[in-house]
Amino acid sequence: MSSVQPFGISDDDRRPPVSDLLEVAQRGLGAKPKRLPSWLFYDELGSALFERICEQPEYYLTRCETALMEEHAASIADTLGSDVRLVEYGSGNARKTRLLLQHLHAPVAYIPVEISPEPLRQSVERLAMEFPRLPLQPLCADFSKPLRLPIPPRAPRRTVVYFPGSTIGNFENREAAVLLRKMRNEMGDGGGILIGVDLKKDQAVIEAAYNDRAGVTADFTLNMLARLNREIGSNFELSAFGHRAHYNPMAGRIETHIVSRRDQQVKIGRASVPFRADEAIQVEYSCKYSLEDFAALAAKAGLAVLRVWTDPQQMFSVQYLVRASTLTR
Ligand code: AVJ
What we know:
Blueprint: E1 10-11, H1 21-30, H2 44-53, H3 60-80, E2 84-89, H4 95-103, E3 109-114, H5 117-130, E4 139-140, E5 158-163, H6 173-187, E6 192-198, H7 203-209, H8 216-232, E7 241-248, E8 253-260, E9 264-268, E10 271-275, E11 280-287, H9 291-300, E12 303-310, E13 316-323, H10 324-328
Parallel strand pairs: 1-4, 2-3, 2-5, 3-4, 5-6
Antiparallel strand pairs: 6-13, 7-8, 8-11, 9-10, 12-13
The protein binds N,N,N-trimethyl-histidine.
């Protein structure tokens, strides 16, 4: 069947061209206060640095979520039911996905959605060897935009969007609701969302996770400037900037900034952008939720929390959301 392409990546042609990078940088650094979008972290080096963050002792998120998946994969698979079409947003290294795929009952297809084609191709190649009977339908696209999902090889009982890693935390409340609402549309009436959500906890524990002693997170943060130097020819002097991540308890989020160590000028295309000493570029929010906070966010998007899997210390949670209307009907 032509719609099932084990190694063919369907390309969503509505993806924005990468050449807009200069414009993104100019707009963000012209704003007050200065800001740059967190997706800029993830070029090849940035993605590798993020993998190393996940191995740092302070970064509890990945370890907790993987442990939850190891312990509960069977019960999660039972909750999702048989003949699921699994759509993963931002498929990364797919370690947690494997645990899920191993337990799913007669999955119809797995659709990893990833903006960078090379990592997508590599992960699909490996999955094809490990799951030879599972139809793989990779989609190269920006998951924050409406997706054109490939035609499934047979009729699924339901479409489940998998969004692990607490990536939802990178979106402010309003945008998070918009993204969940978009998933709700894509999964259809009987569908669901399986989502990893980091939980509120002791401030020192959260701050340590974003300020690891080995300095990998600082390298990850500053790679954003290195990437701009590589790709748009800006001249950020990396030693003249620093990484800062603080927990804002009122907003319930880590706020990461790149801070200028001194007065300086940086060339961005033809423009020269001034920085004062201690001036900050806002680069990332990582929102933390209580179970109640997240249920309220889900409700804003017309979703209800059907199940929550969490550890005894409530460090992290994996949650299954369905359309709110399907519960009351
Ligand atoms: C991949 C978005 C979940 O916010 O914890 C890790 C990214 N930034 N350390 C997070 C990140 C700094 C991470 N997410």
